[in-house]
Amino acid sequence: xxxxxxRNADFKxxxxxxxxxxxxxxxxxxxxxxxxxxxxxxxxxxxxGQSHLHSHMLLSKQVDITxxxxxxxxxxxxxxxxxxxxxxxxxxxxDYRGPSNIESVLDKLNLIRYSSSTLIGQQIxxxxxxxxxxxxxxxxxxxSFAVVSAVASGIGCTITTPLxxxxxxxxxxxVQLLPLSDKLIRHxxxxxxxxxxxxxxxxxxxxxxxxxxxxxxDVVTADFPWLRADVKVGE
Length: 235
Description:
By secondary structure, this protein is α/β, with parallel strands linked by helices.
């Protein structure tokens, strides 16, 4: 099939399409997103997990599409569609009363870290080093539900993103979110190999942006209006 024929083809005639989704996406908006994938292809499967594993799977052709926070910028031969832009935030227990700057918060509360094996954990560690912050590591967890649940229970604070908070199911009345003065931004992108799936990646990317706008952005900015300036779909 030529590239033109592929672009004009019915996606349902494509071979089995395998999609890898970062945990925060599959938990937050998984049902409508899986419906989109199911409606666009005849044979499909979805896996979730950590971003760095998905990136390896895409490069080794174990999956066809990834939707994650790893755009694989160091590799050629890939198509990228930006899905979401969101800031990292400081999450503290709801009963925290004190200054909102990160230095003061870390003086009062233990930092609950993401595992260093995760991409989000590595981004946060770089941020801490850049800001010359070196809090003692008492607790390191490998998923957002565990991290944010620990904050909600009063164990400490964490650096996370609104989507990870949304994924956890924990809402405004259970934790406080504070902005980071030195902003750290996370991007979610859809990545696929070039010239393999026609317009399907772009079509799924457009559907993803619509779903995130309706099911996530509107909800999280209603809870936290100050996030409107930094939570953007398609940027």
